[in-house]
Design a protein that fits this description.
Helix content: 10-25%
Shape: globular
Radius of gyration: 19 Å
Structural class: mainly beta
Order of helices and strands: EEHHEEEEHEEEEEEH
Strand content: 35-45%
Largest sheet: 8 strands, mixed
Length: 207
């Protein structure tokens, strides 16, 4: 029997860096860089090959950016690493959202930025009676910087730091910090290739 060693999770690491600026009228500008490695980069290259150059920006805006946040409209797009197969593929794009979030008792409530949606991706069922195979893996790092208007108060944020552990060394770490003009959010998720037994499913779904 031949045993093949799985590559490190970071082989397919996706990193997302977001810089968001919100003005006094609740209009927001986003500057985003997404870096894909390994299988993620290969998948994006394949998808991009099928889109004519003349339609690329409109297709990316309508098919990708508009799903990130309600009302998002892309204003620029740059892609690097399309031809360099041994390099990461980087999507660098900017978009705007008018009147972001909603008012609640005089406070501006912001939507989730770059949600990980782990439950939708890996644990959609309430329970399982057969083993679940988790593949492909997930390695995701997200860093979000949010700049609020001068004089605005950031009244509430998620927990300062939290770390969750799931079956078979699955981990998720979240961190939040205030800054001079807003706040930062971090997420670091690692889900290896695994087989989840029915007795482990509740712990995995809760993770």
């Amino acid at each position: 029997r031949t045993r093949v060693t799985a590559p490190p999770l970071e082989t397919d690491l996706r990193t997302v860096e977001v810089d968001a600026t919100i003005d006094g009228d609740a209009n927001a500008r986003f500057d985003v860089s997404e870096t894909f490695r390994g299988a993620g980069a290969a998948l994006w290259r394949t998808q991009l090959e099928s889109i004519p150059s003349a339609n690329l920006e409109s297709a990316f805006d309508e098919g990708y950016v508009s799903r990130i946040l309600p009302g998002a409209h892309m204003t620029s797009l740059r892609i690097s690493g399309r031809e360099e197969l041994d390099q990461p593929l980087v999507l660098h794009y900017e978009f705007e959202v008018e009147d972001i979030g909603h008012e609640n008792h005089g406070r501006r409530m912001l939507p989730a930025f770059v949600p990980t949606q782990l439950t939708n991706a890996f644990a959609r069922l309430a329970s399982r009676e057969i083993e679940q195979v988790i593949s492909p893996t997930l390695a995701l790092d997200v860093m979000i910087h949010v700049h609020v208007p001068a004089g605005a108060e950031v009244s509430s944020l998620p927990d300062t730091e939290a770390e969750l552990g799931g079956p078979h060394d699955a981990t998720a770490r979240y961190a939040t910090a205030r800054s001079d003009d807003g706040f930062t959010l971090e997420r670091h998720v690692r889900i290896p290739r695994m087989r989840v037994r029915p007795t482990e499913y509740d712990a995995f779904a809760g993770f």
